[in-house]
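To: structure desk
From: M.T.
Subject: fold request, one chain
Message: Could you run this one when you get a chance? Sequence is below, nothing fancy, just the single chain.
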Amino acid sequence: MPKALYLHVPFCPKICPYCDFHKMRRNEDLVAAYLARLAEEAEALYDRFPGTLDTVYFGGGTPSHLSDQELTRLVQLLERTWGWPPRLEATLEADPLTFDRARLDTFANLGFNRLSMGLQSSQDLILRFLGRLHDGRQGLAAVATGLEAGFNVSADLITAVPEQDTAGDLHAFAATGVPHISVYNLSVEPHTPFAVRGVTVDPDKEADDYLLTNSILSEHGYRRYEVSSHAREGFEAVHNQIYWHGEHFLALGPSAAGFVPGGAGLGVRYQNPPIKDWLQGAAPSEDVLNAEGYILERLMTGLRTRRGVDLNEISRRSGVEVEVRFAGVIDEGIGLGLLERGAEGSRLRATDEGLMRLDAVLRGFTYSGLHND
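Reply: Done. Structure tokens follow.
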């Protein structure tokens, strides 16, 4: 049975111009309808996949934009289904302006032990460009308050932003002592306000910032364990590794996506519809993974991580000899210094160069998979 659950809270204090997640401004009637529908969905999903959970992740949107009473209702809902708190990790995504120290005590009393904070930068100019409501001082202070309250804190940083002093941001984030930093290059997605305004990302700055991130954060004691994730030892995100290493997980809420057992034994990907249809009880879309889809997905997610993928395990589960099927791609990647073998031989990992050129590495597997009988 799945041991992890993602719960999507779509409400935000403000819609940022770069964001393409399913989100909206809150109103009381909509939140009430959301909570009622979520209870129905959770009970139905629990009937199919009962048991207990190791990790729960409240993502968004901005889950901390819910009131204490609304968060309590969600926790009580999970408590009467899978049980609460989860065994290992309960994460709440939080905006720096949605809590103070007293409210953090409420979060802790509700059973959350990890906060994921969307700081995005420490520089006021960059924060204004990104449409954030907080300034640099408020963001860094929020991290300090979270650490003082005893939470395992992760801070998000966006790089490759025009006029950004990326080194300054990296040093400022590390100086807080936050044990986990997630770093994402700015991406201009279709139909976002940035796309409409014609905002572009300089590929040279993008590449430079990627190298700078690893260089500076490693000096501060962080280890890149996934292409965008850096942690001090023992503070890697437990929940997120479930995604990257192909484990099953449940999902609740509008547009939330999960991966559950089923199909031909390789699993079923499902995604809920957006909130309008979701509130009316519309069924999620489903994609039953065949052997080819399973292999490609495991390679695409596993190679994002320092741990890499166990080719023997993928072969065992899929019934396809992965070493044979992708021999040319693997040998070429190793020859170019983009891939490397682990000590046990069957484990394949991306090198530092391979992580920087990950899209090209993964395209090789995708093309080979689609064009190999």
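Reply (cont.): The mean pLDDT is 95. Let me know if you need anything else for the meeting.
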